[in-house]
Amino acid sequence: MSLKRDIQTGIIHAVETVRQTNPMAGSVTNSVTINFVANAQLAVGGSAAMVYLPDEAQFLAQAGGAAYINVGTLTPVYEKTLPGMAEILHNTGKPWVLDPVAIGIGDLRTRLLQTFKPYKPAIIRGNASEIIALAGLWGLAGGTKTSNVRGVDSQDSVSAAKVAAVALAGWTGGAVAVSGKQDLITDGSVIAVSHGGSHFMEKITGSGCSLGGVMAVYATAASGFIAALTGTAVYNLAGCRAAEKADGPASFQVHFLDELYKAKPREIADNPFDIEEI
Ligand SMILES: Nc1ncnc2c1ncn2[C@@H]1O[C@H](COP(=O)(O)OP(=O)(O)OP(=O)(O)O)[C@@H](O)[C@H]1O
Ligand SMILES: Cc1ncsc1CCO
Ligand SMILES: [Mg+2]
């Protein structure tokens, strides 16, 4: 079987397993998009739980099949919550997804993101500017300390983050997903570029955050690379379908959740992607 076929088989298996087993992936995520993250996780067949406090995050790290950490809106309690949660996830071999939202803003965000380096997330998901900046913070190839991070939106093209993504995956041994008009997913030896989606995804907040939460759901049932590609593929398919029905961003978001829910395993695996072996 070709590599592409193997990957598609993995995608189908991940989608079916999640729908059959309703796995829980707990989250500590930002207050802007927390509801959308939970709804997207439920729509693909997972179970969601969101917490803030240190002991509750430790509980979720142990109870779930995977977890999601997103540093979008920090409060002082996260200084205690996040390192302990990441340490447990790493020590118990649980896959976890890191979304380094708005890296570069503030001391606490920088310190926390630096703390995560030894805890090797199975998936790092971010837009191009965030991936370049995280590689810079972690002292890896392709990164710059002063990347174009301005806030939560990307100022760089996805292809500009390719070297940083490969270097980050080389460090963690997991996968890195760079989102944008096209999405790049790599495990350090294969690069997949996934197509589809809609310009409306830039007009609603949380398409990236919820994608990270959905990747965590799939990571309960697949490798980081397959989980990241499965999440990206269902987002690109559902985004494309929702855009055909939408009149604007608000109706797009409603249709998008419906399309996430309705997408069939084979259709998700057939959503167009290219692969390149490094
Ligand atoms: N112009 C576009 N055309 C098609 N799809 C897009 C476009 N922009 C983003 N997407 C899709 O939106 C999803 C989220 O990617 P995006 O880069 O917007 O994340 P993000 O900037 O981290 O979002 P947020 O921080 O608001 O959650 C991905 O599935 C991506 O493919
Ligand atoms: C808009 C925004 N601000 C902090 S987190 C967040 C959600 C998108 O990343
Ligand atoms: Mg984001």
TrEMBL record:
Annotated keywords: ATP-binding, Kinase, Magnesium, Metal-binding, Nucleotide-binding, Thiamine biosynthesis, Transferase
One Gene Ontology biological process: thiamine biosynthetic process
EC number: 2.7.1.50
InterPro entries reported for this sequence: Hyethyz_kinase, Ribokinase-like
Binding positions (ATP): R125, S179
Annotated residues for binding of substrate: M50, G206
Role noted for this protein: Catalyzes the phosphorylation of the hydroxyl group of 4-methyl-5-beta-hydroxyethylthiazole (THZ).
Name this polypeptide is given: Hydroxyethylthiazole kinase
Native organism: Desulfobacter postgatei 2ac9
